[in-house]
Amino acid sequence: MKKILICEGDSWTAGDILNPELDVTWVNHPSNDSYRLPKVWPHKLGKLLNIEVLNMSQAGSSNDGIVRRLIDNTFKLLKKYKGEEMFVIVGWSSPERKDFFTENNWETLYPAHNHNQNIESVNKLWDVYVENFWNEEEYISRYIHTNLYIHYFLKSHNIDHMFFDAFYETSEFGLHHEKQIRDIITDENYLNITKNFFKDISFKNFLLKNKDKFGGEVFNKNPHPDEMGHQLWSEELSRDLQWIK
After folding, report:
1. pLDDT, mean of residues 70-98
2. Is the pLDDT at 50 greater than 70, yes or no?
3. Which CATH number among 3.30.565.10, 3.40.50.1110, 3.40.50.880, 3.60.10.10 corresponds to the domain 4-96+134-244?
4. Are 10 and 202 in contact (CB under 8 A)?
5. Can you give the three-state secondary structure of the chain, one letter per residue?
6. Residue 179 — very low, low, confident or very high, per pLDDT cuts 50/70/90?
7. pLDDT tens-digit profile of 186-222?
């Protein structure tokens, strides 16, 4: 029996839900936790499986950030739990996002969006990166390596896990419209390795495919999943994870 469910991801796991009574704009603000966390899929899934949940995800995260947090927190949690007592779910962000360390901080670049920060050096970096280095060959390759890296890291510590894609960012701009990231990948070795622990549909495509069956809206205006969307995804994941009870 698993003792704790550890969830990592971006806003599709952290939630894009702000308490209207708070004067905050940052989803992960600590004062927003008690309002936000019960409304997103990790805690809803925890209730369905009757298991403790730790949601470490951060809105706006890149996969680079997910990897940094997950490895750091896994080592910390291994001091409290044995590997076989833990189960990890990673909801990967869009692979185009990339982190760079500059001016004493990690900065996440979102190449599919217009970028205008107050830090001149970050703006210059964004211009150079998007013009010269941002391409499908680079970010899909990086995405594959990230998946394999975290899979074998968790496996080495005897930690069972499941991965899924949250959404594909450039689909918002008409590229690879509503396709899954894995539809673009042709590496058969990678697909064979990941088939046993990778969810066969993205969070976004699951909601798009099934929303008419649910008789209501499942997205906020941004669009991010609303609480109903999170509930439906938790129920979908619970069907895959009944065995961890």
Report:
1. 95
2. yes
3. 3.40.50.1110
4. no
5. CCCEEEEEECHHHHCCCCCCCCCCCCCCCHHHHHHHHHHCHHHHHHHHHCCEEEECCCCCCCHHHHHHHHHHHHHHHHCCCCHHHEEEEEEECCCCCEEEEECCEEEEECCCCCCCCCCHHHHHHHHHHHHHCCCHHHHHHHHHHHHHHHHHHHHHCCCEEEEEECCCHHHHHCCCCCCCHHHHCCCHHHHHHHCCCECCCCHHHHHHHHHHHHCCCCECCCCCECHHHHHHHHHHHHHHCHHHC
6. low
7. 889 998 999 999 999 999 989 888 877 665 677 777 7
- In the chain, domain spans: 4-96+134-244
Q: Token pair for residue 4?
A: 């704790």
What average pLDDT does the structure give for the chain? 88
Separation of alpha carbons 151 and 160, rounded Å: 9
Q: Which residue has the tokens 């450039």?
A: 170
